[in-house]
Amino acid sequence: MSERHLLAFDIGAESGRAIAGRLAEGRITLRELHRFSNGPISLFGRLHWDVYALLEELKKGLAVCAAELPPVQCLAVDTWGVDFGLQAADGTLLGLPFAYRDPRNIPAMEAFLARIPQDRLYERTGIQLLPFNSIFQIQALKDHNAPLLAAAERLLFMPDLLTYLLSGVPINETTISSTSQMIDPRTRDWAGDLLADLGLPPSLLQQPIEPGNLIGSLHPRVARETGMKTVAVAATAGHDTAAAVAAVPAQGGRWAYISSGTWSLVGIERPTPLVTARTAALNFTNELGIAKTVRFLKNVAGMWLLQQCRRRWNAEAPVGYDDLKRLAEAAPAFRAFVDPDAPEFLNPEDMPEAIRGFCLRTGQAPPEGHGPITRCVLESLALKYRAVLDDLASVAPEPIERVHIIGGGSQNWVLNRFAADATGRTVVAGPVEATALGNILGQALALGLVGSLEEARRLVAASFRLETYEPRPSSAWDEAYARFRQIVRHASAPAGDTA
């Protein structure tokens, strides 16, 4: 493989990066060029994404790339799922996109399901029912009589929107589109009957384009402004989880993945969707992946809880993640558990207080201090992984023997160890920059630099150091799991029913 340079813009709900990938001699090396903060902004009580600020950060990344690297052959953008922007006919952005944690989505989901039965929605889309899915966000716009929707000529999901602002080419890429709950996973195309139920004109959406395709070039005006030369723009796996899963360094079968970041996405890769009454009852999702794959998974509220605890603690005195890991290791084991997906953890003002409140209402002594609270979060996540993997194994076509933890959360050696011990499965941790890698691999497929997903994964395995954690059987984890399941049932029971 002759030397090639590719540029990935990987943007999460907490931060974004411009990362350059160098492909040479059968290996990939990464270099971070620019990092920036991200997060929703509050306007009149509503949460939005500042797309214009994000665009300026992308331009800064392009400028650094132009100044410090040889010419890059391609670039692409990936982001979190479900959120979108609306455009007028001339490409003008109609307002700032809403952020998925905006509270208007919950009543909108209830309103939608009052018209369209939940089982029909799942049968058509195979998507996990979550209040922030795009279909419910659109319902929220309609419920609030938002004039933007009526004026819109195009709907672009966040990576598509940022790609448009860089290239001038409008697309709806398949992996990000599938998070909307408006795609039929069997056809990998829009579910027209659901669009009709929403009152959306088909012209609002583009024909979904598969990842691994070139779509155009960097817009000349953006190139001049940033000092870049002509560079191709690709549709990569626009959904960050799809990108991360593409970079799982696995071969063969019998493996699951946990894409560990703000969210933990726990699942398996399949050639076709799994849409049955059983998978609906378990609330598993069928999101579309690179190379015509399906990501059969469940969303778990991952490092979000610890991120928000740290944010609260940093307001008083700075504390690093490594410090929190060491404090968690030293804290007493199995004192209290939380359900990471409990509604009170969606977006509380004070996450440590929300954790204490959950423990009190479920009859547990609340943890106090950084170490015990961090241990509570990490043990609870590991036990949640076990619950999801057990459910996953009950519908998967083959046993799950090892778990690949990828993404930023794979650096948390305490959680990796807990996950291996709690699930009784071998855990392989890494690579850390899985999402940026998957973005780059999508570009490499578009350029013909790698010939298949399997070849791309071998390239990742040859390029990055992985850590393996073998499970240590323990009755203490089994007892903790039984308590955890009971606590989750208690927390989710209707008021007055704690049986």
Helix content: 40-55%
The fraction of residues in strands falls at 15-25%
**Largest beta sheet: strand ordering:** 15-16-14-13-17-18-19
Name the overall outline. globular
Unreliable spans are: none
Can you put this structure into words, describing what you see?
There is one protein chain. Helix 13 (about 320-330) crosses helix 15 (about 370-395), helix 15 (about 370-395) crosses helix 16 (about 415-425) and helix 15 (about 370-395) crosses helix 19. The mean pLDDT is about 95. Strand 15 (about 285-290) and strand 16 (about 295-300) form a beta hairpin. This protein is of the alpha+beta class and about 500 residues long. Strands 15-16-14-13-17-18-19 form a seven-stranded mixed beta sheet, sandwiched between helices. Helix content is about 40%, strand content about 20%.
